[in-house]
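Tutorial, part two.
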Amino acid sequence: MRHACGIRPGRRPPGRALHLAPPPLTALALDHFARESVEVAVLEVGMGGRLDSTTVGRPAVEVVSRIDLDHQAYLGDTIEKIASEKAAIIRSGIAVSARQEPGAESLIVRRAAEAGVPLLLEGRDLHARVRRSGLDGLWLDLDGPGFTLDQVRVALLGVFQPGNALLAATAAHLLGVSEGAIRAGLGGAHWPGRFQVLPGPPPIVLDGAHNPAGARALAASLEAYFPGQRGTLIIGMFSDKDQPGILLPLLPLARRVIFTASEHPRAAPAASVKALAEKLWPGLKADLAPSPAEALRMALSDPRTPMVCVAGSLSILGPTLVQATEKTDIFSEDDLGR
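Running the prediction step on this input gives:
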């Protein structure tokens, strides 16, 4: 919506950024889609689902990705409570769900039954098999009711992408998208800051990893794509995040960690995150950097590092990507709040 329709700042105090809360922005988007006779609108739920402004109308397909702990202050402190909020998007059409923890899956199954909505589950109805994986992409076999896609190339990297590709292909198939278009979409997908690898030397891995599940997925992907390589980790995160849960999967994989912070008001002071990390992992080789850009300079100045990984928040990935690629519009202002 922001890019397609050209939202522009109106009258506001000098130096203040434009911020539209999700409900008004969603309303503007839906109005625009109606005026332009959009055939298919893909709406990402902002947070949760039960009370989110995107849960209006009668969707043709609902997709529930992997559920883990996040936004506990708003959605609940257990996976089951969060799943109950997210499952509320299931209201009509056909629902598609990633493989879930048993408690979360049972809630999704119950919600679909109560709503009278057919449900396709990864592992039961939907399957993804990895043929080959490397820094040049993934090659997958995908199948579900009514479709089989063999040797599909997925441009996105990461051990979590086969499941994501399966959900996307299933949703597209249910909407009547052709096999050729599905293959083209998966082969051309680009997702900045989600196990994005910039070629080296040394290679730079960028991943938002702003919750424990994301950090675990990043750690597993680093071990899969860079086995035996302990590189330099640049990390910065928000003060309201589960900092131990993010740090613990990543610290064992780093030979050196550089702590930094963005200019975002929710950013945790780098020194406090460093102190916590040193308690969690005694003997950690740790440094402080005044900015993400300086952290990257410090990391790249070490000729011994085989790989650099930047993680913890999109707010530090943005400046890093700008520095590394000279692109200035990679993330929106809302993205940088994650």
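Residues 22-35 form the longest helix (14 residues). In part three we will examine how such features are distributed along the chain.
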